[in-house]
Amino acid sequence: MKRAVVVFAIMIAIAQAHAQTSTNDEEGVRDFIARWNAAYTGLNAAALAQLETDDYEMIDRFGHWIRTEAPGFNERLWASTFKDIYHGKPGPARNIESIRFFGPNVAVVEARANHPNGVLLDDGTQIPPFWEINTYTLVKTQAGWRVALLNIHNQMTPGSEGVGQHVPNASAPGKEKR
């Protein structure tokens, strides 16, 4: 009887370890971001569209909420972006800051991109150097991980915030971070 209980406990422990491993497909998520980076920096609209769900949504750096409208929409969106906004020059790769799993088929990835030279707009306006955080909501499909929602957040260098943009330091009551 003791032996059966011990064997049963070992089987439970192995099953739990296996379940946790399959729930956290970190390698698959990292591979997805690597493929995203390759398509993005390679200005490959078709490859990016293949990494997105059919109902893909994006909130761009300006707060525009863009929803997939029809087949081929995502590829046309990226092709237009690469031509009209990036002017054929690739944007920076994304570096993973964190991966958080909400189940075996849902992950949220926070990835950072650096624009060390800023961005020159068509009208001659120079946006100074900045960082951005991209939040990817990924779902695992039969074809692998796909992004269902991408939210892009611009970030400022601490100390360069404008009036009303300074965020107080919540970790030290009564003291603000400068």
List keywords for this structure.
globular, 33% strand, 178 residues, alpha+beta, six-stranded mixed sheet, single chain, Nuclear Transport Factor 2, Chain: A, two-stranded antiparallel sheet
In short:
The protein has 178 residues and is an alpha+beta fold. 32% of the residues lie in helices and 33% in strands.
SSE blueprint:
Elements: H1 2-23, H2 26-41, H3 45-50, E1 52-59, E2 65-67, H4 73-85, E3 95-103, E4 106-115, E5 119-120, E6 126-127, E7 130-141, E8 144-155
CATH architecture: Roll
What's the overall average pLDDT, rounded?
A: 83
- Head-to-tail CA distance between termini: 65 Å
Q: How would you spell out the order of helices and strands? A: HHHEEHEEEEEE
The number of strands is 8
Instruction: Say what the CATH topology is.
Output: Nuclear Transport Factor 2, Chain: A
Q: How big a fraction of the residues is strand?
A: 25-35%
Kindly provide the radius of gyration, computed on alpha-carbon positions and rounded to a whole number of angstroms: 21 Å
**The level-1 CATH class:** Alpha Beta
Q: Describe the main β-sheet briefly.
A: 6 strands, mixed
- Uncertain runs: none
Helical content stands at 25-40%
Q: How would you characterize this protein structure?
A:
Strand 5 (119-120) and strand 6 (126-127) form a beta hairpin. The protein is of the alpha+beta class and 178 residues long. It contains four helices and eight strands. It has one domain (24-155): Nuclear Transport Factor 2, Chain: A (Roll). Helices cover 32% and strands 33% of the residues.
